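Final paragraph of the annual report: two paired records, presented back to back.
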Amino acid sequence: MKLDPSQTIPTASSKAENWIQWHKDLKKVFGKKKANSIWLYAWAKRGGVKSSANTSSLRDYMDGQGVNVTTTSLGELSDAVGNVLDFGLGIGKIVIIGGLSVVGLILISILIRLFKNSNQPLNISAIPIPQLPQSK
């Protein structure tokens, strides 16, 4: 029994993975050339370019199938930034968390000094500030 891809057409709110799987299902039934035509027609009718399914992974997959899923320059820029962030996310998290930790420690030490000596004026120069390593 053949699969009927007309029963599983993705919607405008479908994920990229659904569109990719639907294309694979179409290829099994109709072959690549016809599948590409049907897929592009549905993609255009369902507003695919403007949907959240229009991801770099979907465009990469469809590019490999010989289908150019056009996007705006803003979409391409967004993909580029997203790819850089995905690549550097681990390092970025460490830098952000580390920086926030240092700021938090400084604020805590200021608050401790304020409440410890609440009757005395605050001497900012006495607050320990972490020093960055000197470059040679």
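The closing record of the year follows.
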Amino acid sequence: MTATRGRTGAPTPASRLASRLLRLGVCASAMACTDPRARPAPPAIEILIPALTVHSPGVIAASVVAHDLAGMDSLHVSVQSPDPRLQGDSLYLEPDTTDVTLNVVWTVPGSLPAGTRIALYAKAWNLIGFAASDSVILTSQ
């Protein structure tokens, strides 16, 4: 302790500077630990559709919107129903983009019984490997 005190017992300018730097370093370290950082997360995805009922015959028109700041990898969209004429899926590769809006249209065949449930599924993957999905259930009239 004698090296940091002068002849009068008062702290030397060098020890005062060292003390201030030490306090500044401790404060900076504490702030770095509490700094909110972006954590890896799945992409945001949503199926947008104007109505939850469809006519037979008719069409299903929907938009699938996906977003991820890490970058989009791919988007899988499918339609499922008890009628094999209204089933299908597609895989879209979306390299080098952070926002995707995909408009899809499926033809609803005639003679589909009223009350038939039709499911739309969408799943998006980002470049990190996380995935998110959305689904909508429609009813035929």
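Helices lie at 13-34. This concludes the annual technical report; the extension proposal builds directly on these records.
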